[in-house]
Amino acid sequence: MRRSSSRSVRVSGVDSVECYVCSWSQYETDIHDTCSFENFDPLRVRTHECQNGCEVVTRRDSNGELDIQYRNCITRNQVTYSHTIVTSNHTKEDIYTCNHQLCNSARAHSSAALTLLVAGWACAMLTAL
Question: What top-level branch of life does the organism fall under (predicted)?
Answer without folding.
Answer: Eukaryota
